[in-house]
Amino acid sequence: MSDDEDEAVAYEMVMPFVTVASKGGPHDDEAYVCGWECGSVDSRLTVLARIGGTVDATVHEVNLPQMDLVAMKHGFRMVQQEVEEPVEGWTFVRFEVAAE
């Protein structure tokens, strides 16, 4: 892909949040997004705790302390992964079953 093509790429949300302040709703945008992200990981780990395995996720760095607690709640440990091209504000993590 050329540089011109890279610049033309746009990203859109699959499902917009409509109850956030920027859309006239009562919820703080950033807090809502962080809660949604942590809830999503919590849900995935709930299922994974029953069937085993690992899960990889790209998450906001500000959520790492909460994500670590979510992982512990389900018997997992969170391991931050190295990435070739880091993106500011984001990190890649793997949730693994914690050693007993």
Condensed summary:
This protein is an alpha+beta fold.
Task: Report what the structure shows.
The protein has 100 residues and is α+β, with helices and mostly antiparallel strands. It has one domain (18-97). Helix content is 39%, strand content 20%. The protein has 3 helices and 3 strands, in the order H-H-E-H-E-E. It has helices at residues 3-8, 29-51, 64-73; strands at residues 55-60, 76-81, 90-97. A hairpin with an 8-residue loop joins strand 2 and strand 3. The model has no long low-confidence stretch (mean pLDDT 87).
DSSP summary, beta strand count = 3
The outline comes out as globular
Q: Helical segment tally?
A: 3
**Strand/helix succession:** HHEHEE
Mean pLDDT equals 87
First and last CA, distance: 47 Å
Please give the largest β-sheet. 3 strands, antiparallel
Question: Which oligomeric form is depicted?
Answer: single chain
Rg result: 16 Å
The domain tally reads 1
What percent of the residues sit in helical stretches (DSSP H or I)?
Answer: 25-40%
Question: Main sheet: which strands, in order across?
Answer: 1-3-2
